[in-house]
Amino acid sequence: MTMRLFESIIEANHRAVAAGAQGPLNLPEIADALPVVALTCIDPRLNRLVPEMLGVPEEQFIWLRNAGNIITGPLSSTMRSLSLACAIKGGREIALIGHSDCHVGKTTMMKVTDAFSALGVDRAKLPENLNEYFGLFASERQNVIRGTELVRQSPLIGVKVPVHGLLMDIQSGKLEWLVNGYQTLGAATLSFGEALKQTAVDAAKQTAAQTVDVVAAQLPEFKLGEMKFPEFKIGETTVDPGNWLSQVESVLSPKPEPKPTEAALPMTGNEMESRFDKTRRYRIIGADQKVYGPIDGGKVLEWISDERINWQTPAQIEGSGEWKPLSAWGASPKPPAISLPPPIKPAPQLHKVRRR
């Protein structure tokens, strides 16, 4: 039985890993399936590994790359390149090839913002939701499977073009076949209108928060104390609205937090635990760079006690888009008690004086 292109590639790759040398492909048998289009990560460790472990001749290998071999949508710029590689360059099959130990997959939002800050890019200039914009992921396997689904659904990719998903071991070069493109041939694809709608919805999610920030920045600052009201009387007392408003404004304005002294000692684990808000639910980024949760605060403390995580583990309060170390999510201070006004004294009783 004649093997198809990626059946031959996988078989030769596994023989090569076992024998320590690349097994030759039977090119005459697979010539009709070439050239092949591949999307991989930009990791320089793949420069030698991918051509060597696929065994496809250089002139029959159309190689596309981006950070994390990420597909963000059925009409994305990467999808445009994949479709033109098939339509113009004659690509017969497509393979999305992820790899183990991917640095993009290990990157957190805090690392991204710190890296951009070191390059002089302020956080305010970056998109609000970095995970969605940059396509950050926690699992190389899920990233490949998700990307393969988007390529298969794209109206820009012909239904007769197999779309495969593979994962390469960065140490040995061994290929794991995650998605067999021959089994999904003929699968229903989105219409261009449906793909355009999906792209628009995804784009709206990414820009909604930014739009709110821009509009808020353009509105003039509202200052209660600058509003003018006429003076008025209560009984015989004249009330000056300016003084009254300034008193209200002083109560409402946030009090500056005391600056920590340089000699302040770091808090102990017991102190951080006492400050930690146990009433909230959290998402946690584990040592494997996967997101867990939401879990309640009690379970977080249990994991810290078991040394599965620590107070520096990145965490996010449920409903918040911000990631901080666990130690930063302290319980909110209780608002100061508002003193009640003194009780109203009863009016004195008047006695009628009788005239004699």
Description:
With 356 residues, the chain is of the alpha/beta class. It is built from twelve helices and eleven strands. Strands 2-1-3-4-5 form a five-stranded mixed β-sheet, with helices on both faces. Strands 9-8-10-11 form a four-stranded antiparallel β-sheet. Strands 6-7 form a two-stranded antiparallel ribbon. Helix 3 links the parallel strand 1 and strand 2. The protein is elongated, with a radius of gyration of 32 Å. The protein starts with a helix and ends in a 31-residue tail after the last strand. The mean pLDDT is 77.
Keywords:
alpha/beta; 36% helix; five-stranded mixed sheet; 356 residues
Strand order of the largest sheet: 2-1-3-4-5
Question: Nearest-angstrom radius of gyration?
Answer: 32 Å
Low-confidence stretches: none
Strand count, sense and barrel status of the largest sheet are: 5 strands, mixed
The chain-level mean pLDDT equals: 77
Strand fraction:
5-15%
Q: Span between N and C termini?
A: 135 Å
Could you state the oligomeric state of the chains shown? single chain
Helix percentage = 25-40%
Number of helices: 12
